[in-house]
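Write out this protein's structure.
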Amino acid sequence: MSFVVGVDAGGTSARAVAVAADGTVLGTGRSGGANPNSQPPATATAHLAEAIGGCLEGLDPQDASACVVGMAGTSKLTDPAVAALFEETWARLGLSGVRVLTDAEVAFASVTRAPDGTVLVAGTGSIAGRIRKRRLVSTVGGYGWLLGDEGSAFWLGREAVRTTLDALSGERELGELARSVLAAAGIETADRRRAWQRLITVANAEAPIRLARFAPLVSAAADARPILDRAADLLAGIALAAREPGEDTPVVLVGSVLSGPVGELVRLRLTGLDVLTSTDGMYGAAWLAAVEAYGDGATPPRRV
């Protein structure tokens, strides 16, 4: 029996699904994160093998007509040694012709059958991309925390800490956001000067990307609206920059930041466009595999 395999290889988890030609889900599998940029490639491939192996249980891998893997960190596969590790994994699983795409491509395909459009990703980092014939052909942003990632969870967390430091430097009563940041950092506020020094020390003691842990505090604080508005301006800006003038195609929102108040504000800024939200890249990968195997008329997976 012919089937296809779709995989969402994210930073925190790897999920795989086997789908028959009529859209019936035949099996699923799950494991740990499989982003080779954020963890050792050997760990990423081991997690991929576990997830894909789970969805193939009871199936003959030789019956797989296509396999699409949507992966965060695809740039790592430009390293020949890493690419070889992935090829060895596919061979051990009995799969051939595995196509690795970006997580943005499978996220776009998870909510629309349109071949063209825009994808806006805002999680820990941020990037916008132009989709043509279901493939990412150009990007705006995505430079990482040091050079960009405007509007991302990292950016929101950094702005929360900076706003708190500014508040501690003055004499006004600390607002909700500042109090939340200090509480999350485990810092007492009785001595403002000492709290200021301590917050700088705490923020710099961890990997910079850890600032993203303060992002939810921005979404929850009543006095953080200026930061949220700025994030929405930046994200909507890169989404529009990825599009051609007058383009009438969908915009797909992806990532934790866009599932909350920032996402609502971005939608307002994109009024007049068809804005959709991706919820499960795994099924997008499965549908792209089905299109590869059976053509544009392929039946979408029946989600379970």
